[in-house]
Amino acid sequence: MNDKLSPVLAKLMGLFLLGLIRTLTGAQARWLGCPPKAEQRIYFANHQSHADLVLMWAALPEELRSITRPIAAKDYWTKTPFKQWITTAVFNAIYVDRAKTGDQDPLEPLIEALTNGDSIILFPEGTRGNHEEPQKFKAGLYNLALKFPGVVLVPAWINNVQRVMPKGEVVPVPILCSVTFGAPIALGVGEDRGEFLARARQAVMDLRES
Questions:
Q1: Does residue 85 contact residue 17 with C-beta atoms inside 8 Å?
Q2: What is the pTM of this model?
Q3: Nearest in space to 71 (alpha carbons), one of 87, 86, 60
Q4: pLDDT at site 48
Q5: Cα separation, 50 vs 165, whole angstroms
Q6: What pLDDT is stored for residue 22 in this prediction?
Q7: Is 167 helix (H, G, I), strand (E, B) or coil?
Q8: Rounded to an integer, what distance in angstroms lies between the CA atom of residue 31 and that of residue 48?
């Protein structure tokens, strides 16, 4: 692809996807516990569909989309050249391997992004769930909070997205969706991993009824 044309195509594709997503879902953002602010953040949310990444991206205002990188499962989002191009050129996603191999640290690409000053969108369950309540959070969120105490941790609840793109389906179904952003939380002094992850998970669940 022509190097000069590629950024233009990425911009046009981003605008097209933004319009499509908002037409299909509304992609409503509700900022209840914090304003949309251009500060370094880790947004962490429930995970029920591959469309979660896209909906979270679309729900953010433009000034935050440009500085926020979603986490994308490498095995799924690099299956085809088109998927890989979308996640790389349009979403500026961070690829993570869901299966740890050898001495590889799965958090390494996230640490690199946060070190560079990016905000990230994280799904602490690690895999999609099929229940109303998120699964137990894995240790990644705790480890990042410990390593980057100055980064603001913002919980979010994604509503209805599993009905837009049910597991195993490839054709999206138009239905109203929303993303509710809650009040930031922080890792307490001396707080252990289990206690923090349970509290973070509860902060996400508390947004369901908001």
A1: no
A2: 0.84
A3: 87
A4: 77
A5: 8
A6: 72
A7: coil
A8: 21
- Alpha-helical (H) ranges within 92-184 are 108-115, 140-147, 161-164
Reported as a single tens digit per residue, the pLDDT across 112-124 is 999 999 999 999 9
Cβ(52)–Cβ(161) under 8 Å? yes
Reference 153, options 115, 189, 197; nearest CA is 197
Q: List, for residues 56-68, the tens digit of each pLDDT value.
A: 888 899 899 889 9
Query: Across the chain, what does the average pLDDT equal?
Result: 83
Asked if 191 and 166 count as a contact pair (C-beta separation under 8 A), the reply is: no
**Both tokens assigned to 66:** 């440009």
Neighbours of 135 (CB within 10 A): 16
Q: Count CB atoms within 10 A of the CB of residue 31.
A: 16
Three-state DSSP state, 82? helix
Phi-psi region of 25 (alpha: psi -120 to 50; beta: other; left: phi over 0): alpha
Measure the CA–CA gap between 119 and 197, rounded to whole angstroms: 20
Cβ neighbours for 44, distance < 8 A, ≥ 6 positions apart: 121, 122, 123, 124, 141, 153, 154, 155, 156, 200, 204
**Distance between CA atoms of 2 and 24, rounded to whole angstroms?**
31
